[in-house]
Amino acid sequence: MTVRKKTAIFISGRGSNMRSLIEAARDTEFPASIELVLANNITAPGIAAARDAGVKSAGIVGSSFPDRLSFDKVLDESLRSAAIEIVCLAGYMQVLTPWFVGRWLGRLINIHPSLLPAYKGLHTHRRALEDGVRIHGCTTHFVTPELDSGPIIMQAAIDVGVSENETSLAARVLEQEHLIYPRTLALVASGAARLKEGRCVLEGHSSAGSALVSPTI
Ligand code: GAR
């Protein structure tokens, strides 16, 4: 029988990546089970989507806390009382305190809509288009205190079309996010990807030897 790691997801908005994780974890062979969804925004549409999918979810109002550390302590307490082992950030748009990151180091992962270390922060697709990059994509990584800088677990790259705009590029990258995030969670939950001495160590995976060339020549 598969040992399943109890997992929580933090969101701030629509939660499409959250849905892809919940969907993947419906398979009882998947090495993680989604137990809890927490949002830092009570109007996040993902809260209802999680509930509709049968996952316990809640929004926590940030303004009722004196500072971010007090907020993160409540998050930590909720995770511990649900015996959570892994936390996935899925469009969670609030920077976590170093205290929280330290407590969950190696068990806290994020997805970011760019090929890190390029385009940390916001408006990644707009900035990539402004720069005229030919290849763009998304990254999953272990979270460390510095924003969008933790050891990389997986990446998916796409070619940037000549008539691409921010909306079309975002949609194509999001499609890839929905593929790599469940795979990333499976790698971390099974122990095949782990944080060791500041790097992500992968076991049992080799390069496919493929290249993406854009434009096609
Ligand atoms: C996703 O594109 C995710 O990569 C991004 O927010 C979006 C959330 O969409 N996250 C970040 O920019 C974090 N730095 P979703 O709510 O539909 O998953």
Estimate the helix proportion, in percent. 25-40%
CATH topology: Rossmann fold
> Mean pLDDT score, rounded?
96
Let me know the largest β-sheet.
Answer: 7 strands, mixed
The parts where pLDDT drops under 50 for at least 5 residues are: none
Structural summary, described in words:
- The protein is of the alpha/beta class and 217 residues long.
- It has one domain (5-201): Formyl transferase, N-terminal domain (Rossmann fold, 3-Layer(aba) Sandwich).
- The protein is built from six helices and nine strands; from the N terminus they run βαβαβαβαβαββαββ.
- The protein has a seven-stranded mixed beta sheet, covered by helices on one side. A two-stranded antiparallel sheet has the order 8-9.
- Strand 1 (5-11), helix 1 (16-24) and strand 2 form a beta-alpha-beta unit.
- The structure holds glycinamide ribonucleotide.
How do the helices and strands line up, and which of them pair or pack?
Layout: E1 5-11, H1 16-24, E2 32-39, H2 45-52, E3 56-59, H3 68-81, E4 86-89, H4 98-104, E5 108-112, H5 124-131, E6 135-142, E7 152-159, H6 166-190, E8 193-196, E9 199-202
Parallel strand pairs: 1-2, 1-4, 2-3, 4-5
Antiparallel strand pairs: 5-6, 6-7, 8-9
Helix pairs in contact: 1-6
Brief synopsis:
The protein is α/β, with parallel strands linked by helices and 217 residues long.
